Amino acid sequence: MAYQPVVVLQLPLSDPALLEPFVEACLADRVDLIAIWGEGCEAVEDDVDWIIVGDGSNPDRHITTSSHPGEPLEEVLNMARCWRVEGREGIEIVRL
Prior knowledge:
- This protein has helices spanning 19-28, 41-53, 73-82; strands at residues 6-10, 33-37, 64-67, 91-95.
- It is an alpha/beta fold and 96 residues long.
- The chain has a single domain, classed as Hypothetical Protein Ychn, Chain: A (3-Layer(aba) Sandwich).
């Protein structure tokens, strides 16, 4: 199953070991935005950014990330609905 172009990652993670395979799948599926919501979202956003960058040798590894501490989920979803990806649309909430 391919991920939509915009993903809202809902925390907490059930298993932190699932984060790296999730990010790699998002890269393969050409996800454009991962918005991270829930307690600890800023730290998880940093982790996601480091996974995306990897060793820095591949400039094609790019996903925009955002974290939303203290925001209601509905506000995060509203922001995600405004995100435009040319020729593709779709938003999904993911729990790992």
